[in-house]
Amino acid sequence: NAGVMQNPRHLVRRRGQEARLRCSPMKGHSHVYWYRQLPEEGLKFMVYLQKENIIDESGMPKERFSAEFPKEGPSILRIQQVVRGDSAAYFCASSPLAGGPKNTGELFFGEGSRLTVL
Amino acid sequence: RKEVEQDPGPFNVPEGATVAFNCTYSNSASQSFFWYRQDCRKEPKLLMSVYSSGNEDGRFTAQLNRASQYISLLIRDSKLSDSATYLCVVRNGGATNKLIFGTGTLLAVQP
Question: Across chain B, what does the average pLDDT equal?
Answer without folding.
Answer: 92
